Amino acid sequence: MTPAAQAAPEGAAKKQDFFAPPGARPSLLGLTRVGLAEALRAIGTPEREIRMRSAQLWHWIYFRGAENFDAMLNVSKAMRRSLSDHYSLDRPQVVEEQVSSDGTRKWLIRMNPVDALDKGAEVECVYIPESDRGALCVSSQVGCTLNCSFCHTGTQKLVRNLSTAEIVAQLVVARERLGDFPGLTPPDDGLIPSGEGVRAVSNIVFMGMGEPLYNFDNVRDALEIFSDGDGLSLSKRRITVSTAGVVPQIGRLGAECGAALAISLHAVRDDLRDRLVPLNKKYPIAELMQACRDYPGASNARRITFEYVMLKGINDSPAEARELVRLLKGIPAKINLIPFNPWPGAPYECSDWEKIEKFSDIVFNAGYASPVRTPRGRDILAACGQLKSETEKLRARARLAASTE
Ligand code: SAH
């Protein structure tokens, strides 16, 4: 981890929640219940009203997706005025939206500045619809310190932890865009799951930018907000945290959050994994597997997902498939084979389809479900880190054009 990521501890996150540029009012969007109560206290709300008022705000912000205080009709006029004098419900800005022909949507989201020097960090968030469910892939950090050699996010320089509010805001923004709050209408393209009791976003995966277990506290608090039954109401079982293998935090994730676990494995030998996922040098495969064996709450009904990106000629041989099966012995596991999503200048190619099928057959015959994740949103470069880089390149080009004019 770089000093930048280490230097974004809890205290800073709390400060971020309340930072607003001069003239702007801090947004209450993304605060925890405790945070909302503090915000109410700070504007002189009597102690005996705090519980009731927090519950009202919670309902409006997270259940209804309210964008301003005027909508909160069961809150007294004086209270609404006081709230809007001091606070806002501003969302981070969607600076770019791309919609794939398969319905995958990708948003580049600019966060509100966290201090006077900050121009507003940008992160990506991807929505992947299926017929009866939809997954939102959220980011936990701006950039990433892990430098996995096949991942585009590692090539981006700026790194900081996202605050709880910034993580939560991604779901709120997505639900808004997808018309998935009461009173909103979904986009009429037939690509968003609908029906009685079906929500456009039914699952969350922490598979966007960043390493969620390097931002443990904020991710944990965001999970609490996502899964609160009076608000955003996502079942914890439908929230998956994906890690490159930060071994010391894996047990805590199970014990404190109850989220589903995914491990980005990608190699079965330490020498290769050291190259693909350099974090492996710190926490080698044997230690990682032990942490998985010990994961609280793992069972056949709640399996750990092992992600394995298929890289041509690198990690895709039948011998490696057999080794993978051996490695996972005794762990309630499912295996996700991910065709490598290429990016401009990437040092790898995606394995040939026959190779992937062969690999998948070996894993399947050993008794594991081994779905090959169909590439989604290829026409919009939906793999990790790509939209951000493309947009930065375009901006750089625009600047260059302007300076040579
Ligand atoms: N840091 C976390 C979560 C972010 S990456 C982790 O490592 O798990 C989410 C998943 O996407 C990981 O499995 C990662 O290895 C994979 N991934 C990253 N770049 C990819 C690419 N170009 N093609 C396919 N999968 C990729």
Structure description:
This protein is elongated. It has helices at residues 3-6, 10-18, 33-42, 47-63, 77-86, 164-177, 216-226, 247-257, 270-276, 285-293, 318-327, 353-365, 386-404; strands spanning 93-99, 105-110, 122-129, 134-137, 141-142, 160-161, 203-206, 239-243, 260-264, 304-310, 333-339. The two termini are 41 Å apart. The protein has 13 helices and 11 strands. The longest helix has 19 residues, at 386-404. Strand 7, helix 7 (216-226) and strand 8 form a beta-alpha-beta unit. Helix 3 crosses helix 4 (47-63), helix 6 runs parallel beside helix 7 and helix 8 packs parallel to helix 10 (285-293). It has 405 residues and is α/β, with parallel strands linked by helices. A 9-stranded mixed sheet has the order 1-2-3-4-7-8-9-10-11, sandwiched between helices. The chain has a two-stranded antiparallel sheet with strand order 5-6. Bound molecules: S-adenosyl-L-homocysteine. Residues 148, 150-152, 207, 211, 242-244, 264, 307, 309, 338, 340-341, 343, 383-384 line the site of S-adenosyl-L-homocysteine.
Tally of DSSP β-strands: 11
Structural class: alpha/beta
Measured on Cα atoms, how large is the radius of gyration? 22 Å
Cα shape: elongated
H and E order? HHHHHEEEEEEHEHEHEHHEHEHH
- Terminal CA distance reads 41 Å
Q: Let me know the largest β-sheet.
A: 9 strands, mixed
Order of neighbouring strands in the sheet with most strands: 1-2-3-4-7-8-9-10-11
Q: Which cofactor or ligand species appear?
A: S-adenosyl-L-homocysteine
The number of helical segments is: 13
